[in-house]
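Private note to self, pasted from the team thread so I don't lose it. Backbone tokens:
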């Protein structure tokens, strides 16, 4: 339903707004492509990607890696109010039943690699970052926090600015590139850990999509930090797939959610290789870098 209090606040008459329909429902028809075609789904892009990842159960979680990163966690029929800087949102409504989610955004994801390429010019292509990162066994204590436009969830500090910490005379471009890639995973992990605290439930695995999932080093590091498997989608355009699934459900192309679960199957997964001590050490160093950055406001 439309929120009456918000409508009064911004002085918008309820009568001028369209009817609220289920996510998987009939919104009308279009002749844009010739014959009359029913329009049977409408969903936010990240919610649609969550559905396209077949993340249908509570605690299922997906991350889309683009210029930024967008994490959603299915919270089932409970609208969880976040105490850790996340957004509570409706994931979808099907057949009168509403599924909710927690949502968090990382402002600078793949954009940090573009920065290395276009501004620092220490790589020629984004794809080069993976091979360069693998030239060194670790970052030798270097951390990159790419808060170029502030920090998003769960920190929400618009005044924060990027830093590189831990530099020594032995630091080289491979260490910096590796640290930049790792920063994408660390920022995403911050959001996911906040979701786990809010819900009191650990995620069983992380489903991922977006261009940066082609970077195997990044995917492995994400698994190492989280301590759970990371599963790239077999079909990369999960937002479009999610909308198609929602429309297909309405039109009977698929009988139910179970009929959809195999669509994203058969992908390579990245299992965690770090032990608990390595994981704690990496996260501790990242947290110190975050504190250092926020203390400079």
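Design output:
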């Amino acid at each position: 339903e439309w929120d009456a209090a918000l409508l009064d606040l911004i002085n918008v008459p309820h009568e001028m707004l369209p009817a609220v329909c289920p996510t998987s429902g009939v919104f009308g028809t279009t002749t844009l492509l010739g014959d009359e075609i029913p329009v049977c789904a409408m969903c936010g892009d990240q919610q649609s990607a969550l559905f396209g990842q077949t993340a249908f159960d509570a605690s299922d979680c997906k991350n889309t890696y683009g210029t930024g990163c967008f994490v959603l966690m299915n919270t089932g029929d409970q609208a969880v109010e976040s105490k850790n800087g996340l957004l509570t949102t409706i994931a979808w409504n099907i057949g009168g039943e509403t599924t909710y989610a927690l949502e968090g955004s990382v402002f600078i994801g793949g954009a940090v690699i573009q920065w290395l390429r276009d501004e620092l010019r220490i790589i020629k292509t984004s794809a080069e970052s993976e091979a360069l990162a693998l030239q060194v066994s670790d970052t030798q204590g270097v951390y990159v926090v790419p808060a170029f436009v502030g920090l998003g969830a769960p920190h929400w500090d618009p005044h924060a600015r990027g830093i590189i910490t831990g530099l020594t005379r032995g630091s080289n471009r491979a260490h910096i590139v590796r640290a930049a890639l790792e920063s994408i995973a660390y920022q995403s992990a911050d959001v996911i850990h906040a979701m786990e605290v809010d819900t009191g439930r650990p995620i069983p695995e992380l489903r991922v999509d977006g261009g940066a999932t082609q970077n195997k080093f990044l995917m492995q590091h994400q698994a190492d930090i989280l301590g759970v498997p990371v599963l790239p989608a077999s079909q990369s355009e999960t937002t479009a797939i999610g909308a198609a699934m929602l429309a297909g459900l309405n039109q009977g192309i698929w009988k139910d959610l179970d009929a959809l679960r195999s669509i994203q199957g058969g992908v390579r997964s990245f299992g965690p290789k770090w032990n608990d001590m390595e994981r704690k050490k990496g996260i501790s160093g990242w947290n110190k870098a975050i504190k250092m950055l926020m203390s400079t406001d």
